[in-house]
Queue: 2 jobs
Job 1
Amino acid sequence: MATFMAPENAEAKQAVADAATEVAAEVTKAPLPPVETAHPWAMPTAASTFAEDTDALYYFITALDTVFFVIIMGAMGYFMWKYRRRSKDQKTSSITHSGIVEFLWSAIPTVLLLVIFVWGECDFVKQSVPPADALDVRVTGQKWYWTVEYPKYPGVSLSSSTEEPALTLMVPKDKPVRLTMTSTDVIHSFYVPAFRVKRDVVPGRYTQIWFQATRVGEFNLFCTEYCGDLHSQMTGVVKVLEPDNFERALIAAGILEKEDGESLAAYGERVYRRRGCAACHSVEGKDGIGPAWNGLYGRTESLTDGTTVKADDEYIKNSIYEPNSQIVAGYSPQMPSYQGLLDEEQVTAVIEYIKTLK
Ligand code: HEC
Ligand SMILES: [Cu+2]
């Protein structure tokens, strides 16, 4: 497997780019099998090393519940029938209690609950401690999309938005992956049913999960903490790839740089789709959480403080880096700042893109 190195000169960089395009083409040509089961009675697809253990405990508890349900309901029915009132003047006999029966109905459940506790605790400890050689991934939740970065591959970043939920997270098969997660606004929760992992993503705090995928394919990602208007659309796709393809495919998918010969406006459109703007801004006139972008450039905006401003380059740039300094009338300050997330070239590209939207 070719190892990725920081390209030192233009040639090496070009070679990486070529390899990346090649793999990207392969990956798109043969889309990964969607392997999620849709059957309402089945467990979610099992695609990580945790799935079997988690399911085993689940089945154990369900079986135990079923057995006791049958025993208890059966005994109740039987006694109702056996001790039914037989004549109008029949008196209830006076019964006190049975020490043995009371001991058993306390002791047996105690033992069973302890079995469930120890079993669950062992799984919990295993799932809480990532192996030291795990691949590090940074996950940021914000309204209403995920951004994913790989410290080992600087400059590579993926994100889901409500428009394009296709590329949220890419991981290699059979390698442990550790996610360090935080949120920039409210509490979200990162949930991949096929991996049986779920954890809250909390502003001002880091939470961690890890997993090791066992199957190649595409799996659903959900936010499972109610986080506002578009919570139900805060979904994504986790792609598991063969370890040999992973590195090159990730780089191909994750680098957001202007390509040679690409126009600034086209690059700006990619920024719009890949950096989450599409979650709140439409380009066809439908106002969403934020104002639609078509016709924006050059028009006169009314702000909440009663002033007006012409939507020129400076205003748009300011809206991106310091969105709360000038709030468009009729909107609430919901936009996160992109200071440090978009560089000057990307902002310029977005402006060029907005200019093309009539
Ligand atoms: C969470 C929703 C959200 C996301 C994501 C978001 N915005 Fe916004 N945006 C808003 C809201 C709400 C406003 C209006 C209030 C304000 O001016 O801050 C706005 C306003 C703007 C404006 C001014 C629009 C006008 O009509 O004057 C620009 C430009 C803008 N956003 C650019 C962006 C860019 C670029 C991105 C992505 C890199 C982005 N926004 C991502 C919610 C969002
Ligand atoms: Cu959320």
Job 2
Amino acid sequence: MAIEDHQKGESSTSAESRGDHAMADGPANAGSLFSGTSGSSVEESALQHLNIDYTDDHDSAMGGMTVQTSTMSVDSSIYNYVHENGRTYHKYKEGKYMLPNDALEIDRLELQHQLWLITLYDELTLAQVKNPQNVLDIGTGTGGWAIEFANRFPSAVVIGSDLSPIQPKYVPPNCHFEIDDAEDEWTYSQKFDLIHGRALVTCFKDPAAVIASAFNSLVPGGYLELQDVILPMRAIDDTLTGTALEHWLTITIDAAAMLGRSWKHSGDYVRLLEEAGFVDVVENHFQWPMSTWPKGERMKVLGRYWQEDMLRGLESLSMAVLTRGAGFTKEKVLELTAEVRKDVVNKNIHAYIPVVVVYGRKPTE
Ligand SMILES: C[S@@+](CC[C@H](N)C(=O)[O-])C[C@H]1O[C@@H](n2cnc3c(N)ncnc32)[C@H](O)[C@@H]1O
């Protein structure tokens, strides 16, 4: 199994200088981009540059930086809603996915799309796909990835599929959206050169089955790429221990498990791809700090975005799961997330979420 090292050409061993350098120079010298196929040791080695910045004095969530999300051209009449505890959820296959599909969540996904682009140095995919013609984005959400891919590869036809019709109406002519359940049998008449899935760790009951469907729907030599966070969040020291944030993470993930969804399988993507028959499987590790606590401009930017994402997402992530799976009332969830919010903006908690990008190739014979 090949190990890709994106550190090549780098002479400095200073963690902070790697982070700053990476911001300017991109993947070839990327401080937070470590890749390989050797599991947790690869993930651990990627932590070298997470060093606490004791001098940082930014107090606001975005540290004076404005995070902008674009205004989507969405006709609200295309929504199918299920109303529950002040949020809305998808109607097709009602109850299956436990995060909302309302304007608040759309806004968070748009922010997160920007966070992914910053994380991957403006790349949409790390797989070495040559001249893609047919591309599929499963669980496309607001379609940001699919639209951007269609813009960058005008000769490709890009399909985005999702349970929720929350995609914009006006999209590039080579981009189409479909309402579909990725856990149903795939009936596409064409084979794809690239199948992509991002931030889907909370989605599937049986991710291995979805990965098998993707394998069967790729051309020989085609790629599957999964980009995700790895739950739960962690810390580089003991500052997360005993916090409301830690408690919330534990009970939310446990409640999802009780509802039949493991939210922890993204750490198994390499194994799942290999078991499905993919070859040359590569994993790349990144981290999103919970705030501006680490040194280095790149880490601080990632921290500002992830903090804002968390602040917008606390309720999205846990309202349905805790009320449906752990017997919480809406008020109790809001009370708890109000406490967690304080931890999210507390720079003395040195927490981060591991981020992984895994891709593999379908053999040519
Ligand atoms: C966290 S969002 C990520 C959206 C998008 N991939 C992104 O990165 O912006 C997860 C998306 O997966 C969709 N989803 C969940 N379960 C699904 C399923 N079984 N089939 C298709 N889409 C699903 C949800 O509706 C939601 O839009």
